[in-house]
Amino acid sequence: MGRDVPALVFTREDRRRYRIKMQECLEAFAQMLRESRFETERPQVGLEIELNLVDDTGEPAMRNSDALEAIADPSWSTELGRFNLEINIPPRRLTAGGPDAWETEIRAALNHAEDRATSVGAHLIMIGILPTLRRQDVGEAALSENPRYRLLNDQVFAARGEDLHIEVDGVDRLRTYADTITPEAACTSTQFHLQVAPEEFPDYWNAAQAIAGVQVALAANSPFLLGKELWHESRIPLFEQATDTRPQEIKAQGVRPRVWFGERWINSVFDLFEENLRYFPALLPLCDEQDPAETLDRGDIPELGELTLHNGTIYRWNRPVYAVAHDKPHVRVENRVLPAGPTVADTLANGAFYYGLTRALVEEERPVWSRMSFSVAEDNLHTAARHGIEAHLYWPGVGEVTVPELVLRRLLPLAHRGLELSGMDSAWREPLLGIIEQRCVTGRNGAVWQKEMFHHIDAGARPGRHEALRRMTQQYMDYMHLNAPVHTWPVD
């Protein structure tokens, strides 16, 4: 969840003070790492799901404030667009209660929210990009009321000095300009959190980067944007472009983008926070009263507010997170590459694959990131986003292979082993990873189903493109509520 901020106008003095405080936070963080002050005994996992709101016909519903008031649960919050909501599932041990318990908890929370949202004329849908969004739905009027988003919007465009240009070539071609960051709201994701010991963080982050392309290929669920059929996971290029603070001249100078895969494997979690300060100017220079050095000197734990706020405006696909829970600090990897949906069953299968595979890769004697260049890992991500489960990706020792072959032959056994090492027995593993296996066997995920269903409707009654997308969206919601994995969804 993003941190709330007040509506403000920033001065040069604000920015100078913020730069100083960020450096002080970074130094305090380095001291905490040296002194091993972090929680490591009870690592937990967490989950955030972003959702869209639609009306009874499947069109966007700009009702997130009303829906949030009706849901009346602190686990829920608004997101960038008025048609977005987000739920933060409470953290837990990976094997606590078994996957059935986690699934029951998540479905109960979503069903309660759906019931309450219905009372204000809205419905929840878990999908990477809402197919029925049109250009008029992502203008300034669609920006959420929270002052954080207005302030962030103003700062992004102050840095750019010009409108955003969004350009994606897929089956169709999308060319459009935007004078707000609201197109980013079209991107709704699933975010898996993994708490680790600081000394283990670089291995887990490197592993997460190495498999990002495979994750996206397996779980792609965003083939349509503003009425165009584009990439299987169009969220990736859209998010990269919709929050870009760089005009063309700055891009040409090699300045890093704020939506960033990164540029190297790391040796410490410190590397990522240090890069944040070195490469990215502050968008929201808000200073806390807390002095991190004084806080450490008296034996307390600093919040590092400036460091964490700045980190929240740099959108790495695998983001480092520093947080304090129950007076104990910890670090975790926030895995941000996956779209929302299609179902809770699919979501938990994606999580099992991610948690299991990263654990197994970290345990390998010769890490995969020592055998794969960082640029290849990034290329895999964009190839997977473009082609989905049909992509050919590179993997050390295998070369360039299809995603199903790579997963079935190499990665799925590793995911099983990683979950076993984490204490999850086969009775829990098999149903979850069996969903991943069947996606590979059938070659079907959310993006494939959406594309096939859209073309089936369009070729039959020929209702027109938007109407076909609307009908497909309604059918998607019906299957979503059944919670049957997407590879089993019919097209008829």
UniProtKB/TrEMBL annotation:
Residue intervals passing through the bilayer: none
Reactions listed under catalytic activity: L-cysteine + L-glutamate + ATP = gamma-L-glutamyl-L-cysteine + ADP + phosphate + H(+)
Matches recorded under InterPro entries: GCL_type2/YbdK_subfam (IPR050141), GCS2 (IPR006336), Gln_synth/guanido_kin_cat_dom (IPR014746), UCP012666 (IPR016602)
Keywords for the protein's UniProt record, in alphabetical order: Ligase
Single GO term (MF): glutamate-cysteine ligase activity
GO biological process, one term: modified amino acid biosynthetic process
Statement: the UniProt record of this protein carries the keyword Ligase: yes
Name of protein: Glutamate--cysteine ligase
Lineage: Bacteria, Bacillati, Actinomycetota, Actinomycetes, Kitasatosporales
